[in-house]
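Kindly inspect both lines:
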Amino acid sequence: MPFRIVKSKSILLYFLILVAFSCKKEEPAPDLNKDKLVVTKSNRNINTDYNIMGFDTYDENHIFAVGYKGGQVKLFLSSNGGSSWNDITSSFNSAWNQEIRMVQSVLYLDLNCLAFIAENRLYRSYNGGNSWSITNNGFQELPIFCAGKTEDSSLIFVENFSSMPNRVLKSSYDSPVFSVVTTLPNFHREFEVGRLDEDHFIFLDYEDDYYYDRIHQFNTITNEVKLIPIIATGYDYPVEAIKAGERIFLVGRYGNLDFASLNQNLLTPPFTHPYNLNYCSGENMGNYFIAVGEQVITTNKTGDWKNVFNSDYTKQKDILRKIKKINQDYFYVSGDKGLFFKGQIK
């Protein structure tokens, strides 16, 4: 009998312990990848060995891209989001297509109206790329360093004379006739980096080959020009200046990503890429920013800047040139040798 009582107590204790453990709420396992971001991409490559230095979209389906190789450009159109591309270079004057060293702006203004700047020349087409003309004032070509489109698809562009005052010019998207919006002060400096966002044209002038020390903010609504002196960006060379509210996102060629305050004329401490890879372009996605370049995509989507393209920098071969937002979630990216894809960070 005593043996049976002890055994019954042991069984009862075991049962109580089993019930206690079964009622205990399980703690979820820690998510070790909660902050890990990757780029998912859908390839939309262009069948060419030219580097796609710039592109623009009229909408998600219609894309105009400009490739560059060996001093010449090639022009491409897509009407299905990059699933297929048409090479329209044959319509471009071969005499112009010599010794081009840089592509500065690419604009898709209307389904029939295209524009791009190369070597400070503004080329325009009003018939879907079937023919092209160079912007001039009736007796000479105008050196134009950057251009942008407004909400109504009007074209805003800025001259780049080094020895006389430069002007901000405007024309309808479908007409070569332009008007002078304002004349900028003559600083005897050349402009190079420029972009139109949020009804403001942001462009920079440089003191030497290493950094810029003034931001020019042109309001396309009020035509007001504001000069903003800034601190040197760690002797980096900005390749993109993007207005985002009261800040300007500066993408540095040699690895720096800075924010300049429009009110305080200050730069935040820059993020410098640990592998010193070159950036080529940036984009404001609304709630976060992205910078792309040679073998890298970097974002601050989770707060801190992180590389999200490929963690093995030594093996990543894709050289990226340009990024453009499609919507809050998706973007297009172009790169060397016809590289083009639709991407998302998640």
